Amino acid sequence: GLLQRLNHPSGAEKVPRMPSGAWVNRFPGIGCICDKVNMALALRLLQKMWPEKFRFWPKSWLLPAEVDELSSWLDKHKSDTVIVKPEGGSQGDGIFL
């Protein structure tokens, strides 16, 4: 039979059953959770559900949708620095303080 993974952007993705003894070095669809926006949204939800377990995730904003919230936070935290990571960048490309 086939395994089906739901909640994938393209709908249900069919994942073929692996032969006995086979190894997996990449999980199908892992790029979706590794995407900066999806990861931020997922961890934000987990912080709301279990704040004590997800304190490691820093405050984050998704721009341009949350620019007002970011501006308000910066007004209150003038000496703090934020790290800006472009959605499409990787390996440090486009990051600035």
Question: Which terms summarize this structure?
Answer:
97 residues, alpha+beta, two-stranded antiparallel sheet, 3 helices, 2 strands, elongated
Structure description:
This protein is an alpha+beta fold and 97 residues long. The protein has helices at residues 30-34, 36-49, 67-76; strands spanning 2-5, 13-16. A two-stranded antiparallel sheet has the order 1-2. Strand 1 (2-5) and strand 2 form a beta hairpin. The model has no long low-confidence stretch (mean pLDDT 79).
Radius of gyration: 18 Å
The strand line-up of the biggest sheet is 1-2
Helix content: 25-40%
Q: Strand fraction band?
A: 5-15%
Total strand segments: 2
Shape call: elongated
Largest sheet features? 2 strands, antiparallel
Mean pLDDT: 79
Give the N-to-C terminal Cα separation: 50 Å
Number of helical segments?
3
Low-confidence stretches: none
Structural class: alpha+beta
Give the topology string: H per helix, E per strand: EEHHH
